[in-house]
Each structure stands twice: as structure tokens, then as C-alpha cells.
Design a protein that fits this description.
Methylamine Dehydrogenase, Chain H, about 550 residues, globular, 31 strands, 5-stranded mixed beta sheet, alpha+beta
């Protein structure tokens, strides 16, 4: 098969810089090195080789001593005895002062870094070539502090599939709308190896119950039915990016991809549409990401080899007399090889946002988001959004969330201040798309991948960090998801969604691989979680009710 990704497709391609554990050790060593140097005994270190801050401290002390009148030899001897007796305490105090100095230095560096990220690209929503007033960018806010009074840990409820199985990786994808949740298991093997499945849950009398179980209508081994999902007005779109297509002569097109539309007919989920690429390409992955808004559906083919490998494209479909027809095929004018255009897409009303994590505008694989607006009966390119502090391999646009006037995009491999700690960038539409905030986890660690998943709905945003480790339990890459709330036009971190008992955050469960929210209900997937019912890599998911300002919430301070 052409274009087949390995069993864990994103890691070798999207995080190429070596083993995370080794990098973590290196980061820790580099962090501790200045502290070790500062706290070392300076009596045996030549003046020229002492840290500058310490040399300055000694110089100030010498000046203070020279300004004092001479003391008697007896007083000097007594002072020396006192100094010998209190030597250990003095060393401890000096070490504390040095650690405080190092912490202050880190804080200053962090503030300088935030100040440098306040200017970001703006997109022109009307395609008239106006980029907006650059001076307006200079006053953009930085990430606000977390108000401790709103810290809470939400308790979730596990959503267990009716037919769990080892290696299904249930929880790879998920969507939620009202009382409906759909969860994808693209490696489900019931109709063949990795043919896939989608499980549908409904909230009935306050409880989430599985009511449907969808299998691919044309099962194709390694087809990945359920790799990505979208929902709007009770209509579900399911991507199967590695199903093979057919040419007119009946020959197969390996991994060209397809997307399916399902609606409830007489109470049963029924396939009502099949979406195919206008020009199928082998290995194009059509259906990798899907989005729906009203009578329009967008389907991406991020590996379409239009201008070289993994250039990508997005096809827009509209419904006419019950049939879905292609309306437009979108690509950036400056499309290039391996830009991964369409890795993730979002559609709402007349706005389409397309992630291109391989975009090299800022630096190699720094990433970008391309925005289109629909007006005058056609899709018009509005602009490209990039991070001003973007660096190589940030992968901005690997995940995109859109709920007007807000647009958010994850850069899970962002290295400031720690390698692959990740960040999420937020823009607001006010005639132009203007940068609003850079969000980071309050307790960030190296290798968290914060921003690998993100979703916005109303005043809430949920961001996944699937590689988050938990030192308190000794687990690595167990994952986490963070909730943010819009308060006074600022996105504030208000809590952490933790795995529930039935969705244990075991070693490399990667909880937070997918995060979706509707209203105040959020669903989080852990695609590699081991479960008692399914076994290794069976996958898991949990649903949460996020408390609002008017509701009681568990606070760590109250526990």
C-alpha cells in the first residue's frame, strides 16, 4: 500500500528529535548546571572563572568592607570564630539566595519571551490585500496569570465501547453535539485488519449510553474508518483516509481515501452520502480531517502530491437536492512539498481554517494556518496566520479550532521554555484576524505536547497535552487536558481534566490525544490506554461536565 503510515504514525514524522526521555534528562541537567556552578565553593575557583553574578556579589562585599573603619584584631578573631561556627548556615543561606537569583532570571527571560511574541500575522478576511495596522499588534495581551480561586479538577465519566478489543485505539477521534457523542476506533478489526468503527453515545436521563455502533459500508483492510469525525445539526461525517479508490477501468487506487455522511433516518443511523475526491491520488489520505457546517462539508487530503509529497488540498462539498457535490478545491498559492496543508481543518459558517504544520514561512516546519472566507458566491483567500515567535519544528496548525470570533491552533512541538512543551495560539476576528494570546500550561514540563488537540465552544476551550508525564505516579506520557474559560476577553486556565478510574492514566495512555467540547460538556480520548475489558492499546475516553462560575467546583485548596 502506498503512503501507509506506521502503527504510531505521528511520532517519527512529527517529533524527529530523538527519544523524549533522553531529552528530558538533558533539559534537567542544563537547568541545574547554573545552580551547581553558583552554589559551589568559590575559595578554590579562580576569580576569572567564577559566574559573573557571583563576582559582582563579591566585589560589592569588598567595597562595603573597605568603607568600614578598621576593627581591632581581637574583634576580628571573635568574628572569625563566629563565622566558623555559622559556616554551614551561611552556605545554606547563600545557596537559597543563588536559587532565588536563578529563579528570578528565569522569570525575567520568560517575560522577555512573552513580550517578543505579542506581534503575530493577521489575515485579511475580505481578500483586499490589507494586512491591517501593525501598530495594533503591538498592544496585544500576553497570557494572563491563572486565578487560584478558579482552580479545579473536574470528575469525568468513562465512555466504554460495547466491543472493546486489543489494539483498537478507541478514542483516537471524538465529536460532541448536545446529547450525542461519537468516538472513533480506526484500528478496529471486526471487518478486517484496521477497517475501523465508530461508537455513538447519547445522553438519556442524565446518563451516557451507547446507542449505535457503525462499521465501514465498504470495509477495506487498513482503511481507518473513524480516523476523524465531524458533527453538525445531528449529521455526522466520518473519514476513512486509507480506503482504496477505484479508477474507471476498475483498478484500485491505494489509500486515496473517502468520507461518509450519516444521519438518523427513522431512528437509525443511516449512510446518506459518500464523498470522493475530484481527482483521486494514491496515498492522498482524503478524509484525514473532516468538518461540517450547515449544508457544507470540508474534507482534507493532506498527503495529496500536487506539488510534491504531502502538499495537501481541501475539497468543499455542498448539498443540492439531497446530493453532495464538490463546490471548490482549495490550495494555497505558495503550496510546497511537505507543507501538510489540511492536516486539520475547521469550518464554521463562511469561514474555513486549514492547518499546515509543515509550512516553512517562519522556519522549517514552523507551521501556519490558512484562512478562507466565503463571499460573492466563492471562497476567497483571507490570509495566513503564523506565530511571531515560531521556530523550526513547532508544527503550528497540527490542530485547529474555530468558534467565531475565536480561532485557536496548537503548536505542540514548541520549545519555549522547554523542548516540546507546546503552546496554543489564539486569534480573534475583529474585521481582521488579530493575535490575541499565547496559551501555555501553568505546570508545563518538557515533552508535554500541549496543544496537540484543541477545541473551542462558546466561552470554553479544552487543550490536550497527551505526552504529559505524572511524576507523582511514576507514569510517562499518560497525558492531561486543560480547560480554559473566557473571562473579561481573556482566556484563563481554570482546571485540569484528569483520567477517571475506568480510564486509568497508565504508561503512554496519551490521555488528551483528542479533546472536544460542546456547551460545558467535554470529551477526551486516550487512544493508547490499556483497559481490563479490551487489553493493550484498546483505548478509552471520558466525558466531563465543566463547572461554570456560578457552580461549585472542587479546588485543590479545599481538599
Amino acid at each position: 500500500m502506498i503512503g501507509r503510515l506506521p502503527h504510531m504514525p505521528l511520532r517519527p514524522m512529527l517529533s524527529p528529535r530523538g527519544a523524549p526521555f533522553a531529552g528530558w534528562l538533558t533539559a534537567c541537567f542544563l537547568f541545574m548546571l547554573p545552580l551547581i556552578a553558583v552554589t559551589a565553593c568559590t575559595d578554590s575557583v579562580p576569580q576569572d572563572h567564577q559566574p559573573q553574578a557571583q563576582r559582582q556579589q563579591q566585589s560589592d562585599a569588598q567595597q562595603d568592607q573597605s568603607a568600614e573603619p578598621d576593627a581591632s584584631q581581637t574583634a576580628a578573631d571573635e568574628q572569625q570564630v563566629d563565622a566558623d561556627q555559622d559556616g554551614a548556615a551561611a552556605d545554606t543561606q547563600q545557596g537559597d539566595q543563588n536559587q532565588s537569583s536563578a529563579a528570578d532570571a528565569m522569570q525575567r527571560d520568560r517575560q522577555e519571551s512573552q513580550q517578543q511574541t505579542q506581534s503575530y500575522g493577521s489575515a485579511d478576511p475580505y481578500g483586499d490585500g490589507e494586512d491591517g495596522d501593525d501598530s495594533a499588534q503591538d498592544d496585544q495581551p500576553v497570557t494572563p496569570p491563572v486565578p487560584p480561586v478558579r482552580q479545579w479538577l473536574a470528575e469525568g465519566v468513562a465512555l466504554a465501547p460495547s466491543v472493546p478489543a486489543e489494539g483498537d485505539e478507541y478514542g483516537w477521534s471524538a465529536v460532541i453535539e448536545g446529547d450525542i457523542i461519537a468516538i472513533g476506533a480506526p484500528y478496529h478489526d471486526e471487518l478486517g485488519e484496521d477497517t475501523g468503527a465508530v461508537f455513538i453515545f447519547e445522553r438519556i436521563d442524565g446518563e451516557w449510553i451507547e446507542t449505535a455502533y457503525l462499521l465501514p459500508p465498504f470495509p477495506d483492510p487498513l482503511g481507518w474508518f473513524g480516523r476523524w469525525l465531524a458533527i453538525d445539526d445531528g449529521r455526522i461525517v466520518i473519514g476513512a483516509p486509507y480506503e482504496d479508490g477505484l479508477r474507471e477501468d476498475g483498478s484500485r487506487i491505494d489509500d486515496s481515501g473517502v468520507a461518509y455522511v450519516y444521519e438518523r433516518v427513522n431512528g437509525e443511523w443511516t449512510r446518506t452520502g459518500t464523498l470522493l475526491p475530484q481527482t483521486p491520488y494514491s496515498g492522498a489520505s482524503f478524509g484525514w480531517s473532516v468538518a461540517i457546517s450547515g449544508e457544507r462539508i470540508a474534507v482534507s487530503a493532506w498527503e495529496a502530491p500536487l506539488f510534491g509529497m504531502q502538499t495537501g488540498s481541501v475539497t468543499i462539498f455542498t448539498q443540492h437536492k439531497g446530493l453532495w457535490r464538490a463546490e471548490a478545491v482549495l490550495q494555497p498559492a505558495e503550496a510546497s512539498e511537505r507543507m501538510m496543508f489540511g492536516r486539520d481543518i475547521e469550518l464554521q459558517g463562511n469561514v474555513l481554517a486549514v492547518g499546515a504544520p509543515g509550512d516553512d514561512t517562519i522556519a522549517e516546519d514552523a507551521g501556519a494556518i490558512y484562512v478562507w472566507h466565503y463571499y460573492n458566491d466563492e471562497w476567497n483567500f483571507a490570509g495566513r496566520l503564523v506565530a511571531a515567535d515560531g521556530i523550526a519544528h513547532d508544527r503550528l496548525g497540527s490542530q485547529v479550532a474555530l468558534h467565531q470570533p475565536w480561532l485557536a491552533a496548537g503548536a505542540y512541538d514548541h520549545d519555549d521554555p522547554f523542548w516540546s512543551a507546546g503552546a496554543t495560539y489564539v486569534w480573534k476576528l475583529d474585521n481582521l484576524w488579530e493575535f490575541h494570546a499565547k496559551l501555555e500550561a501553568s505546570d508545563m514540563q518538557p515533552g508535554d505536547w500541549f496543544g496537540y488537540s484543541v477545541d473551542i465552544q462558546g466561552d470554553f476551550m479544552v487543550i490536550g497535552a497527551p505526552h504529559r508525564g505524572h511524576p507523582e505516579t511514576g507514569t510517562y506520557r499518560s497525558g492531561a487536558a486543560y480547560a480554559f474559560e473566557l473571562t473579561d476577553d481573556q482566556w484563563l486556565e481554570v482546571g485540569v481534566l484528569g483520567p477517571v478510574d475506568a480510564v486509568e492514566a497508565g504508561e503512554r495512555a496519551e490521555f488528551g490525544w483528542v479533546t472536544e467540547i460542546h456547551g460545558t460538556t467535554a470529551v477526551v480520548g486516550a487512544w493508547l490506554a490499556d483497559t481490563d475489558a479490551g487489553g493493550v492499546d484498546a483505548g478509552a475516553a471520558a466525558v466531563y461536565e465543566i463547572p461554570t462560575n456560578g457552580e461549585d467546583a472542587d479546588s485543590p485548596a479545599d481538599e
